[in-house]
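INTERNAL AUDIT FORM
Audit reference: QA-55
Scope: verify that the stored structure record matches its stored sequence.
Auditor: D.O.
Record contents follow.
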Amino acid sequence: MKHKYESKVEIPDGITCSFSNGLLSCSKGNAQLSRKFVSKGVNLSVNGKEIIFECARANKKDIANIHSQVAHVRNIFLGLHEKFVYELEICNVHFPMTVKVERNKIVINNFLGGKVPRIAEIVEGVDVKIEGSKIKLYSVDIEKAGQTAANIEKASKVTNKDRRIFQDGIFITKKPEVVL
């Protein structure tokens, strides 16, 4: 027989949360994060200073789904408390490349001597700082910061050449630490 399963997440001081139409909105000061939580069989509710996830039948998939949603909520709380930081390193062996920010894009010029600039999109809500050969990405949303880092790394990928010889590129060197 399957039993009811419930998991609670305490809302930290200074953060206000509301849930309606499948959208959880959390805010602290002027920072606000929202995430859609729509999952069959799993119910979410905000009661006072805690968020409650529950399901009527506790099978393996539903329990795993609840744990994933709890992790997303904790990432929202961590992001509202302090910005997530990704660090990337600009590495070039053959040709010196130049990297600059133009509005919502990062432009990589002279990558492996190429004439056409490579472009990576900066997701809205991410701040980018280039300091010498280091790039730092700051955001309250870990998914937006991670997607921007992946866009930059993908734009500087070496194609049709031996990766052991052509080691140029922009690589993620530090991700936000996981706090459990």
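Auditor finding: record pair retrieved intact. The chain has two domains: 5-81, 84-174.
Action required: none
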